[in-house]
Design brief:
Elements: H1 41-61, H2 67-74, H3 78-90, E1 94-96, E2 103-105, H4 107-117, H5 123-137, E3 140-147, E4 150-157, E5 172-173, H6 179-185, H7 190-200, H8 213-226, E6 229-232, E7 239-247, E8 253-262, H9 271-288
Antiparallel strand pairs: 1-2, 3-4, 3-8, 4-5, 6-7, 7-8
Length: about 300
């Protein structure tokens, strides 16, 4: 496997200084410093406020909006709204339908939101369930989040067996060929998933790795149906992983857990039994995070 990578920091959103809808004191119509030498920072603050206003408008008016929709809702000049949206589109904060030309929230917000979960003090709260899962299955257990289109491992409990998965907290692995990665992405909107695949690709790691998008979409549909994901020698020959999603109080998937071990122990005839243990542990974690009970389900066989 590749050498461990250090945890990266998501870039700040950079927006250009554009004209405000109404000139503030000391500023001309383009947001420049006026003849009295007023502070330029006021224009910058107005731009940031308007960017946030635009993003919040999607939560109020719908998932897809045109420039005119946003212009009317925020009482912005149409040219100003267009320039702000164009800048956000370049950074992946919003996406644009190539046919309708309407905008929707983009993949970068999902990535930033996933990274934000790593700063929340909930890892210690769910740690006991990782330990219980290791005790019940005998295998190494992992907790991971989606970060910059990859699996980022944030916690683990080692198996007592001498033969176990060589993993490390802080390591990143691909999403498409790991059980825990499939559990993380199975419930993403398809356009977000396609964006991740376009960015990271579907590289072949072993002969069992899924390398085409239609096949991956089928695998993720099966994951949603049975409530767990499987990786059978897709990231490393001889290694099997079973993963399940962890949801927060909004029922959104914010993390995933998995067990990983050699194929000699995680045999097909025990798949359903082990999957029930993984999903049960994921449900317990989700309950601690406030997930509504109706979103907690036992796996099918």
């Amino acid at each position: 496997m590749d050498a461990d990578q250090s945890m990266s920091t998501a870039p700040d959103v950079i927006v250009p200084a554009v004209e405000p809808a109404a000139p503030a004191a000391g500023l001309d119509g383009a947001g420049r410093v006026g003849s009295d030498g007023s502070d330029r920072a006021l224009a910058g603050a107005q731009v940031v406020d308007r960017v946030v206003d635009i993003l919040e408008t999607f939560t109020r008016l719908g998932p897809e909006l045109g420039v005119s929709d946003i212009s009317r809702a925020l009482d912005l000049k149409k040219a100003t709204a267009h320039r702000l949206l164009a800048s956000l589109h370049r950074r992946g904060i919003v996406a644009q339908d190539p046919v309708s030309r309407r905008y929707r929230l983009g993949m970068k917000l999902w990535e930033l939101g996933s990274m934000a979960t790593t700063a929340v003090d909930w890892v210690d709260r769910v740690k006991p369930f990782l330990q219980q899962l290791t005790d019940r299955t005998g295998e190494t257990t992992h907790l991971a989040v989606l970060s910059d289109g990859q699996v980022l491992y944030v916690d683990k409990v080692e198996s007592a067996h001498s033969l176990r998965m060589p993993s490390q907290v802080g390591r990143r692995l691909p999403i498409h060929c790991t059980g825990i990665g499939k559990a993380l992405i199975a419930f993403l909107p398809e356009e977000v998933l396609r964006g991740l695949v376009a960015k990271r690709g579907l590289a072949m790691v072993t002969p069992n790795t899924i390398t085409d998008l239609p096949r991956l979409l089928e695998e993720l549909a099966l994951t949603r149906e049975r409530h767990y994901a499987v990786d059978v020698e897709e990231i490393e020959e001889g290694l099997v992983c079973i993963g399940a999603p962890v949801r927060d109080h909004t029922a959104h998937v914010v993390a995933a857990i998995s067990i990983a071990g050699p194929s000699s122990r995680l045999r097909p005839e025990r798949m359903a039994e082990n999957a029930r243990e993984v999903v049960s542990a994921a449900n317990s974690m989700s309950a601690v995070l406030g997930c509504p009970p109706e979103f907690l389900a036992l796996p099918t066989t």
